[in-house]
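Posting this for the archive.
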Amino acid sequence: MKRKYNREIDLKRINKRVISFNNKEINAIEQYCKKYKIGNKSQFMREAVIKSILKKMDEDYPTLWDGYQLNLFAQY
């Protein structure tokens, strides 16, 4: 019998991590959230971390040519 994929279980947030901030860092976060009216700080921080990771992974993704060779193609 084939098992059914349950997306709800896969996306449920059950893994916890703790992060500590110094006073200046937490004040900067608080000011940012107040200025941009961010009510859900957990969501904001989670999205910031994931965006940073995905951006770095995208930059590090192997290509057929190195950066110099890619720039050569951009000239044409």
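The longest helix spans residues 41-60. The mean pLDDT is 84.
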